[in-house]
């Protein structure tokens, strides 16, 4: 069987491919080492950080809503407090009235319905 002899051009190309291959192998090795360094602790730290940012974002949103509601129900008698919703039951039905947080101003009691808006007394935001 006649042995195939590479031409110079082919030989150059093979050498070049071999060098490229070695370079890629080295790069893969380096990347593997980097990946191994990213452990679970890092992952959890990142997750915690993201959760924290997300929570603070939402908290700000809730405070915004609360401020708007307080402004909407600002007490016209004293001008400093705001009217809070005081919920109670009357013959098994939910009733409510609004009462100022600083003075004795309060509204007449009415039946509560889901459309009643305002700051609920004792509600945590
Ligand atoms: Zn008031």
Beta-strand portion reads 15-25%
**Main pleated-sheet profile:** 4 strands, mixed
Number of strands: 4
Low-confidence stretches: none
Please outline what is shown here.
By secondary structure, this protein is of the alpha+beta class. It contains two helices and four strands. It has a four-stranded mixed sheet with strand order 3-2-1-4.
Please give a handful of descriptors for the protein shown.
rod-shaped, 50% helix, binds zinc ion, 4-stranded mixed sheet, alpha+beta, 16% strand
Give a verbal description of the structure.
The chain is an alpha+beta fold. The chain contains 2 helices and 4 strands. The chain has a 4-stranded mixed sheet. Strand 1 and strand 2 form a beta hairpin. The longest helix has 33 residues. The N and C termini lie far apart (87 Å). The mean pLDDT is 85. Zinc ion binds next to loops.
What topology does this entry show?
Elements: H1 8-37, H2 40-72, E1 83-90, E2 93-100, E3 110-111, E4 119-120
Parallel strand pairs: 1-4
Antiparallel strand pairs: 1-2, 2-3
The structure holds zinc ion.
Zinc ion is lined by residues 75, 77-78, 81, 100, 102-103, 105.
């Amino acid at each position: 069987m006649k042995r195939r002899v590479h031409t110079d051009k082919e030989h150059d190309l093979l050498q070049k491919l071999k060098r490229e291959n070695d370079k890629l192998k080295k790069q893969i090795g380096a990347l593997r080492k980097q990946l191994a360094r990213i452990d679970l602790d890092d992952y959890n730290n990142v997750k915690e950080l993201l959760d924290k940012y997300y929570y603070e974002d939402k908290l700000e949103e809730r405070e915004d809503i609360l401020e708007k509601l307080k402004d909407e129900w600002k007490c016209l008698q004293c001008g400093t407090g705001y009217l809070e919703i005081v919920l109670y039951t009357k013959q098994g039905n939910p009733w409510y009235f609004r009462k100022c947080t600083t003075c004795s101003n309060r509204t007449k009691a009415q039946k509560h319905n889901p459309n009643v808006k305002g700051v609920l007394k004792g509600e945590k935001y």
